[in-house]
Amino acid sequence: MNVPMPPDLASVSRLRGTLTRSISPENFDGSAGGGGRATEGTGAECARDLGPEWKISPSVDIKAGETFDLARIDGPGRITHIWITTHTDNWRTLVLRAFWDGAQEPAVEVPYGDFFCNGWGVFAQVSSQVVAANPHGGFNSYWPMPFREGARLTVENTSDVDVRIYYQVTYEIGGDYSAEGYFHAQWRRSNPLEELATHTILEGIEGQGQYVGTYIAWGVNSNGWWGEGELKFYLDDDTDYPTICGTGTEDYFGGAWNFDIPGQGYTEFSTPYLGMPQVIRPDGLYVSQQRFGMYRWHLLDPIHFRTGIPKVDVQALGWRSGWRYLPLRDDIASTAMFYLDRPTARRPKAPTADDMEVHLGTAPVPDIGATPPRDPRG
Q1: Number of domains in the chain
Q2: Could you list the residue range(s) of the whole structural domain that residue 346 is in?
Q3: What is the pLDDT of residue 9?
Q4: Phi and psi at residue 318, in whole multiples of 5°?
Q5: Using one digit for the tens of pLDDT, what is the confidence trace for 165-182?
Q6: Is residue 359 reached through a cis peptide bond, with omega within 30 degrees of 0 on the bond before it?
Q7: Of 275-279, 286-290, 326-330, where does mean pLDDT reach its minimum?
Q8: What is the CATH number of the domain that holds 253?
């Protein structure tokens, strides 16, 4: 399966037969020559002295409880870029979805903020190859999203207030996308994680494809180090044991030794393929637990499978006395990205407003006895 990667400088100059189109509130259907024609919209009053073509329709309002179609595209093509922004209060009340080739079930179903590596409703700069989050809430996706018959992107507003969003969906048409996989993204949350359980990132996927990315918004409900748990990938015929077993959570996300630079503590970082761009520290009032945002994109090292992915999971482990592992009951929300040879896949139930809500200082704290020691490796 040939999954397209972002072009390098050597290919940018190559002439191709594709055409670029763009859907926004100024051109809802992406038609050629269809931009800037609006005569009414959210900016009409601001342009009352200027008239048509002067930013009449830069955004849309989505009423409470309603779903809005960001884009409907007929025929084959590939989405190459999504830019979108809204107020931070909406990042865990909106659900982003994508449907391919007329499917009734979404291939992408993720809270808005989590899809762009900002799962806590607090801005973090992300400077990666496929996701860029820029001040203040300018979210960008460069995940290639090919389709053969059509595409539909939607945003559901699960809150009880209306939401205004600005967006632009850029795509190409005129190419051959028959050999490319469909982009999928799934969100799961354990809040809190059950006793002696692992957090499931993905499960029950059938078909051929490759796993290409993980984002986790991790809320810590105890003192001490929290990232000792291993990530495991069960591929194809794996049952009891995984094909890929990592050495620890911070190791999987490209860090080491607790993400701790001596004298500085937890240290944010964002690179093209992996990072921990967000560390939210207690504020002494309502924000009582530490929270983290981490991503890893398997762009140069995709995880290939032939018949499916039975499961991907992560342990939540800290330390207790006597250098013993301490299973934790943290708040873990994960987003898994993968390409598949079909437009639908087994997925969890659709997230509700309660499922997505970010609680401030209300999560249960396990009784762990004495404060666990630091990671003995450091």
Answers
A1: 1
A2: 59-356
A3: 75
A4: -120, -155
A5: 999 999 999 999 999 999
A6: no
A7: 286-290
A8: 2.60.120.1390
